[in-house]
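Teaching assistant here, posting this on the class forum so everyone can see the example we discussed in section. The complex has two components, and the goal was to see what a joint structure prediction looks like when all of them are supplied at once.
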Amino acid sequence: MWLNLTPSRRLLSLRWSLIQYRNITLENTARKAAVDKVLSAFRSICGKDNISLGEAIREQHGKDESVHRCRPPDVVVFPRCVEEVSALAKVCHDHNLPIIPFGTGTGLEGGVGAVKGGVCFSLRNMDQILDLHPEDFDVTVEPGVTRKALNAYLRDTGLWFPVDPGADASLCGMAATSASGTNAVRYGTMRENVMNLEVVLSNGTVIHTAGKGRRPRKTSAGYNLTNLFVGSEGTLGIITKTTLRLYGVPEAMVSAVCSFPSVQAAVDSTVQILQTGVPIARIEFLDEVMIDACNKFSSLSYPVTPTLFLEFHGSERSLEEQVNTAEEITQSNEGSDFQWARDAETRNRLWKARHDAWYAAQALRPGCKAYSTDVCVPLSRLPQIIVETKKDLLESRLTGPIAGHVGDGNFHCLMVVDPNDPDELHQVHLFTERLARRALAMDGTCTGEHGVGLGKRALLCEEVGPLAIQVMQGLKDSLDPRNLMNPGKILQRGEL
Amino acid sequence: MWLNLTPSRRLLSLRWSLIQYRNITLENTARKAAVDKVLSAFRSICGKDNISLGEAIREQHGKDESVHRCRPPDVVVFPRCVEEVSALAKVCHDHNLPIIPFGTGTGLEGGVGAVKGGVCFSLRNMDQILDLHPEDFDVTVEPGVTRKALNAYLRDTGLWFPVDPGADASLCGMAATSASGTNAVRYGTMRENVMNLEVVLSNGTVIHTAGKGRRPRKTSAGYNLTNLFVGSEGTLGIITKTTLRLYGVPEAMVSAVCSFPSVQAAVDSTVQILQTGVPIARIEFLDEVMIDACNKFSSLSYPVTPTLFLEFHGSERSLEEQVNTAEEITQSNEGSDFQWARDAETRNRLWKARHDAWYAAQALRPGCKAYSTDVCVPLSRLPQIIVETKKDLLESRLTGPIAGHVGDGNFHCLMVVDPNDPDELHQVHLFTERLARRALAMDGTCTGEHGVGLGKRALLCEEVGPLAIQVMQGLKDSLDPRNLMNPGKILQRGEL
């Protein structure tokens, strides 16, 4: 870019950069002065032990599991209840300080980076499970409660919460990023499973998206605020409670592994199983690079070919029928016999291996970091996009094993990249853009479950168009007129 | 109220009413002048044959199937494509004319009444079914396409669209009111089944809520605009296309009728069937008053006691298992043997009788009109609320047979009322308010599927609280700053 400019343009550009730099520096100075001013107010709200200015703590709260660089907040607060969250938010609002909600830091799109500094609200101290209604299949949890903690709590009730993104994320964080994962093909994503939210807005106002304590299975009462906050990535408010739909633990579960001679055969089987209406609980694809990495990382010995991990839930009898149909289909596509995982321990080992794919991929190149793509396309386009993407990976000489929730048309290339090699980083960036555009050209989306965060803001605009972006910006302005809530995420307005 | 005022207050109140009246009259005069001015622009956009000022046409477009009185628009336009909708909206916007979208007029909450006059956009001429993707289980339809028309079109594809509110409503209208009905317990409501919308905003801007032509099974790309417009009742924009999720026609279906000695026994059976995890497709409750009315209206002869209509979908084998479990439960609650409806014709007759409940109720008192309540509560609260409500009906001496989608906790009292008896109307009003508050006290909602429209605006405020209402009002202001889109619905801002 720079080299294409005339000398006078270069000068102009340099001057513009200097003005920007001065503005940012002034902004930073003003913000840090504001932080100093509010500390005593923070202390009187949540006690001095629940406020941290330490560098290590701030750095820990400035990054998630993605390659996005750490952007530490100016201060981290650890409120203990919604009243404290509200009072702290009000102070931030009065002093124009950015507010960044923090759950477990297991996001994958840089969602917690304090790109404009400000106050990180770490919600781990609010970890109560409230109002379990086993007879109505619902429960309400505070933001410090993780997926695994909830399922451990539910162990003896015959109920479970199935949405499973792999990481032991906080449930309110999962609501904020509209997470899903391996079970979504059967049980839906957070969008279908959040019934109500308590949210603190940037000015400290506390709302309940469906009304306080309400939990009907369906409602047509006014605008669907619940699903506006689900997937809002902390940019509209701080989620301080979420009411979730629960499910009965199935009478029987069985998992199976099936190897295929080609990607096409594995993905064709997936599409056909879905089309036949088998209510499959999980159907996960791993390409030969991925299965090889998992074999090594988790001490397994599956054939190194494109593979499906499947899971069936139901009564003993319905399971038999589901399995028979699925096996018939995989065999007609030259799949291997199913390798079974019937008891809980073997099943858990299998799915742990699948969920450890992220670490298995990283282990392929020690010292490197992983970045996951996240496109999602209509089912029928899956074979073509996966085949084209594997070709692209080969041609680009990039390491990117593929794992995916193919039952939803969603798959990830786990790009393993040397963070100190700018050329490789650039190649990965170009590859992920090509992949996203390939998905967009096939009626798909650039993000099926990870969210937009920092890295996909430009792609979001390509995906929904500038007019829908304007509408989104209008909603943001309406709920957060000072742009204090997690600024710089989802929408692009010069906050880089 | 009036009688409680002091004489000077009465005078003040009278003067206020006169000022209001004068303002409304001035507003009406100005609006009618504006309508006169825009007619030639309308004609040049959609041709003179697609504009109607006739009284009969206007009256037909000023009311739905509810008791809300007819509020005819000033003019009805019949655009033929999204470009015409957009151009017409722009003209309305430039002249501050209210815009009221109209599908089939089968709503139940007065949603189409032109309470501030303006232009009714009747969308029946846009009736194309577009982009059927059988392999991906999705289709896109224009707003003139009804539920039955789509299912007729799909007849030979092995696919169907299950959401079924009874009436042959337009699918875009169903999206606008967040409709559901008898199949929601298995297949979800419009919220779960709309994948994308094309929407014309009040200023004529056309957006696609998930991006043009996109149809991935899941997405985390930005704010969930799709579910903001689903259920917005025409107050945020005009839905001109909806992309819907389709389902495979089940291998086998069977319906059954079961009579019970008491309401409690019927509703307990429902709750237990759901809790056991039977994937029941429909489970409808009719109280003894309702079944009696249906027997008479549809020439049936079911025992006049609380009754469940059930339907099971699945493979032949899974059906057997579902039915056995359900029968075991109903029999343990003293239910009768199942009366079967196995072939398509008998099943259709059964469900037609259920869907004709509305007319059957009206036939109980010829010359009267029906008004349907629509509360929805958590499953476990159903027995109590239905028993209390029946007691209330008896004590209030009101006719209100009960029919409901009890699998979702949603039921309707079909209030049959003499529209010329102000005392009875008042009694019905008081009863419906008591019922709604009973539902709110049980963590429920005042509307499970009919929407807020005109009659439930105050109850919505009680349900979600004034702060959530403020948020909703902010969203409305952001999308429709001139308050032109279907003014006076959902939110109350003096437009009565």
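For the discussion questions: Chain A has two domains: 1-249, 252-441. The mean pLDDT of chain A is 94. Think about how each of these relates to the inputs above.
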